[in-house]
Amino acid sequence: MTQRTGYPDGAPCWADLNTPDLDGARRFYTGVFGWSFDEPVAEFGHYTTARLGGRSVIGMAPKMPDQQDMPSAWSVYLKTSDADATVRRIEDAGGKILVPPMEIPAQGRMAFAFDAGGAAFGLWEPAAHTGAQAFDEDGAMCWHEVNAREGDKTDAFYRRLFPFEQQQMGDGKTFDYTVYNLEGKAVGGRLQMTAEWGEAPPHWMTYFRVADPDAGAERVRQHGGKLLHGPFDSPHGRIAVVSDPYGAVFSIVGPEPTAA
């Protein structure tokens, strides 16, 4: 059981959830992943941190009164050493700043934006809070990808922000996926959305590792969530797309298949 202490610039380093029912969401995710939670901090909007074995995993906060009409959703944060410089690159690359860089006392600085294709994401410039301490293990987030309507435009946008080495997967037609690499290691990806997605807007998806995706999907149902797609097999593990009882969508994925 290791504790991660940092991430390269551009890597997804944190995720948090905005929910209409903090107590209900904590019960749900404890039942699904076995998380424990810190006491919510009133001066930070009752923000709370989920933990595995004492290590931070994600954050969670209740919706503010002016957010009640907004859907409940997971948000991903990309690590940056300089939020101000990254925000300038976002604007130069055709993105839109929603929340300019702001100080979270003693923890770091955050910003929030839309990418050039319309998917929302955050930035995190760490101080004491360096990102998720538990990563890519049972009960922790392990992968993030941006689901895009304009794949080439989205890839070009993120190349402007960080030194991603982007690798095209699939044939680019029936399956169009780009892996985002940093320092020779895959840290995320971009999936081209198709007509099968209906009217869903571009968005980032967070994946959580589970030992058994079928059992994980059943836990989701038992605790009031919904199974949206799958479980289905992939080259990188068995996957299910699910939602919590309040409509926040995420994915669970099992271990990668072992070579025969």
TrEMBL record:
Gene3D superfamilies: 2,3-Dihydroxybiphenyl 1,2-Dioxygenase, domain 1. Residues 11-126, 140-255 form the VOC domain. CDD domains: SgaA_N_like. SUPFAM superfamilies: Glyoxalase/Bleomycin resistance protein/Dihydroxybiphenyl dioxygenase. InterPro entries: Anthracycline_SecMetBiosynth (IPR052164), Glyas_Bleomycin-R_OHBP_Dase (IPR029068), Glyas_Fos-R_dOase_dom (IPR004360), VOC_core (IPR037523). It holds the Pfam family Glyoxalase. This is VOC family protein.
